[in-house]
Amino acid sequence: FPTRRSSDLPMPVSRLLELGVVLQRADPSQVLRALDLQALASRSVLALSGGERQRVALAQCAVQGAPLLLLDEPVAFQDPAHQGQVARWLADLRAPSGLVITAHDVNWIARTATHVLALLPGGGSERGEVASMLRADLLEAVYGCRWRDLGGLWVAD
User: Fold this and answer.
1) 19-59 pLDDT per residue, tens
2) Which residues sit opposite 115 in a β-bridge?
């Protein structure tokens, strides 16, 4: 799942998802509802905003029925309501699928992730449950700037 997704296929969202179904148990209409895309089903993919295209790309991944999803910045271009909706949808996917997500939004990670793998400069890494990983010293090492915890809200200085 790329950071920047652009589909140049001039077709309706619903048709694009139908073409992506790999396993017959995948239900595009259910995925459309889950990702707040049902009102866009008849619209051309080319007419969608960046956030709408991002959710369509997530839906394409879902209808393929893969046992493992690798997602890069799945809430990029999303407003706060859709960020929360995508997080809940991903949480529901956890049972049948494995998920590996890359993300830079520390607060979204804090609300969504169960475990974190932090990639450090020089090739090192640190991993653990999200609560033990969100620390100013580690965030500073990963992002190269100072961080403050403002009562559960992480802010970069």
Assistant:
1) 988 877 778 888 999 999 999 999 999 999 999 999 999 99
2) 129
Residue burial 115-154, b: 16+ Cβ < 10 Å; e: rest: ebebeeeeeeeeeeeeeebbeeebbebbeeeebeeeeeeb
- pLDDT tens across 2-23, in order? 444 445 678 999 999 999 888 7
Coil, strand or helix at 104: coil
Contact 55, 78 (CB under 8 A): yes
Note the pTM of the prediction, 2 decimals.
0.83
Give the DSSP per-residue string, 134-150. --HHHHHHHHSS-EEES
Distance CA 130, CA 127 (A): 9
Q: What are the residues whose beta carbons fall under 8 Å from the beta carbon of 123, sequence distance 6 or more?
A: none
Q: Which helix (H) or strand (E) holds 32?
A: helix 28-34
